[in-house]
Structures are given as C-alpha cells and as structure tokens.
C-alpha cells in the first residue's frame, strides 16, 4: 500500500497516497475514534461492574455467556475460555461456561443452567438471545449485554460497523476478566465480607502504618480500576494502529490472494488454540454469514469438531490435531489462516507445513516478535502484532482479520 506519484503543475512530482493507503487510514481512524470515545464513557460503569461481578464470584456464582449467531458464538466461547483458563500468571480460574446455538434453544439452556448468583453476559440483538437473557434476569442473575436487549448493565458499542463493534466488545470483556481480580485482592470490599487489615503488621505497625490500612475505601479502588480501564483501552488503540499500519502491504497481498483463490472455487481453513480458536470461529462466521450484503464464501473451522480434535489428540498427539484435518480437507485451491499469539505453537506450525506441502496459500497472524512462524518464514503472509500481552494481541488481531475481510471484497473491484 505504498504511495504513488502525481504530477505537479510545474512539471515535478509529489508523493500522493494511493487509494489503498486512504482506505486503510479510514479503517484505522474509525477504530481509533470509536475506541477512545467509548472507553472514556465506559470506564466508570466497567469499574463498577467488575466490583459487582467479583461479589457474585465470591458467593460462588458463575459467568454464563450466551449468544445465538455464529459471530456471537465466537465471543461466547472466548469469554468462557478466558475466565476458566487465565493466561496471565497469578490470575485465578473463575467458573464460566458458554451456551450457544449448537446446544439447542438458548432459553431452554438458560432455564436448565442459570442460578441466582450467576452473571449472564449476552452477545447479539436477536429475539432468542433477549428472551434467554430475560430468563436469567428473572432467575436473579446479574445481566450484561453488548446490545440494547434489556440487560441490567448494557455496554453498547457505538456506530453501525459490526466489525468495529465486535472489536470494542472483545476489549471490554477482556478488561472485565482482568480487572475483576483486583477486588479479590481487596476482599473486605466484597459484599457480605467485613473490612479488615490488609496485613497484620503487629509490633512493627509504627514503622509501616500503611500496611495496616483497612479495606474501607471502595471509591479509591474504583478510581484505580477506572484508570486501568483507560490505560488498557489506550494500549489496544495504539497496538491496533501499529498492527494495521505496519502490516498494510501484507494485509493487502493476503486479501488479494485469498480473493483469487475463493473466486477459483477454493475455501478458507482457519485454526488456532484457546482464544485464538475463537478468533478462527469468528473468521469462518464472517465468511459464511457476512455483513453488508457480501456474498457467502466457503470456509472450515478446524477447531469446531470436538470428536475429530480429541480423537487425534488422544490417538496421535495434540501436535497433529490441525495437520490431520489439512490432510483431509486441504487442496491446492485453498488457503489456511493460522492464528497464534506466540507464533510458535507446534500444532499450528505442523498445519502450516502440511498446507505448504499440499499447495495451499498460508496466512498467519502472530504476536510477540512473530515467533518461529516469522523467523523461519513458515507462512506466505505473516501479520505481526508486536506485543507480549495476550489479550491485547488478540484484540489487535481481531481488527487485522476484519480489515482483511473487507479488503477481500474490495480486491475484486
């Protein structure tokens, strides 16, 4: 997406941004403005919601994520895995589960599952999800939603771009997951628990009086959490801009090649582990059931079939769970999209190698310094998000995928 030259009136030339550069700048600006404005408004409600969620967890409650659409399913699964399997050292595993369309009618699932101390978090604005959320509320659950569907706490992203709205929602639930833990470090601030000394300093209290401060100042802790919300939103805003700008040419080239292969009858195969598996779900959903009246395009989610994944993992090994599926489904007309925060997962690398042997095009979205995938050029197109913070990497990768998805449709114009 480099600039092109235009003629000056005096016969000289001046660099002029290409149409692609202008389009990318527009996509970045749309995200940056929405991110900054929304989290400035949302910082206080998010901080207070973290406190209320911590109270529920302390009483034995669970987080129940619900959603009916394919795109909502990816967020449902993402929330659940983040709370149950925290990737940040020192964060406790918190009980969470996801209820999505493959389990049947959402209302029936919530009716069977929800308990009064639970937290229900909903994705999507469809009637089925709204009805299920209402059942959770009637059961006594704290209800949260990213659409105006009657939740007690409604965190509704601005604008009408479904991609940007999803990216903002993902950052918001990552923030909830990280900052709810702050209140476990101040357990005297949780409902039903008395305030007490943070530390029993004994005879040394005259030397270190601050160590014996009592946990009474909820407003001070909330203020710290609000500041942290704004800090994290600023971090992802900068990282998103950096990821999209630094990888502009890779994104354009990947979109053009993927469009060519799709037009020739090929399909996309997507994969990842953990939170990256849910990003693969989202990529496939955005191709199969796209917004904006775009045509549906063939795609397979290699994380989707638990029977295949667990059979291969049990009988052969985790390293082969994606490679075996590339052997089964991949053809030389296809493209493999691999998502990895580390850039070094063995099963991702094995799948990329198999894809190359079979003539597939390969696209990788990776974090940190790109890992082995970038260092050893294991994919044709490598989009690097240069961060060591897993939630921020995933949020920036969501933006990179959504921009690539738009460029796929624009590549044929």
Describe this structure in words.
The longest helix has 40 residues, at 19-58. This protein has a 5-stranded parallel β-sheet, with helices on both faces. Strands 9-8-10-11-12 form a 5-stranded parallel β-sheet, with helices on both faces. Residues 2-17 and 192-214 have low confidence and may be disordered. It is of the alpha/beta class and 413 residues long. The radius of gyration is 23 Å and the shape is globular. It has helices at 19-58, 70-84, 106-113, 127-139, 162-179, 218-246, 248-263, 275-288, 306-315, 323-329, 346-357, 371-375, 390-410; strands at residues 4-7, 13-16, 63-67, 96-100, 119-123, 142-145, 153-154, 268-272, 299-301, 335-340, 361-366, 381-384. The two termini are 16 Å apart. It folds into 2 domains: 19-182, 3-Layer(aba) Sandwich (Rossmann fold); 247-410, Glucose-6-phosphate isomerase like protein, domain 1 (Rossmann fold, 3-Layer(aba) Sandwich).
Present the secondary structure layout.
Layout lengths: L3 E4 L5 E4 L2 H40 L4 E5 L2 H15 L11 E5 L5 H8 L5 E5 L3 H13 L2 E4 L7 E2 L7 H18 L38 H29 L1 H16 L4 E5 L2 H14 L10 E3 L4 H10 L7 H7 L5 E6 L5 H12 L3 E6 L4 H5 L5 E4 L5 H21 L3
Parallel strand pairs: 3-4, 3-5, 5-6, 6-7, 8-9, 8-10, 10-11, 11-12
Antiparallel strand pairs: 1-2
Order of helical and strand elements? EEHEHEHEHEEHHHEHEHHEHEHEH
- Name the poorly predicted regions: 2-17, 192-214
Q: Proportion of β residues?
A: 5-15%
Query: In CATH terms, what is the fold-level topology of the largest domain?
Result: Rossmann fold
Number of domains: 2
Q: What is the helix content?
A: 40-55%
- Using only C-alpha atoms, the radius of gyration works out to 23 Å
Shape: globular
Name given to the CATH homologous superfamily of the largest domain = Glucose-6-phosphate isomerase like protein, domain 1
Average pLDDT, all residues:
89
CATH architecture of the largest domain: 3-Layer(aba) Sandwich
CATH C-level class of the largest domain is: Alpha Beta
Number of helices: 13
What's the number of extended β-strand segments?
Answer: 12
- Secondary structural class: alpha/beta
Q: How far is the first residue's CA from the last residue's CA?
A: 16 Å
Strand order of the largest sheet: 4-3-5-6-7
Described by strand count, sense and barrel closure, the largest sheet is:
5 strands, parallel
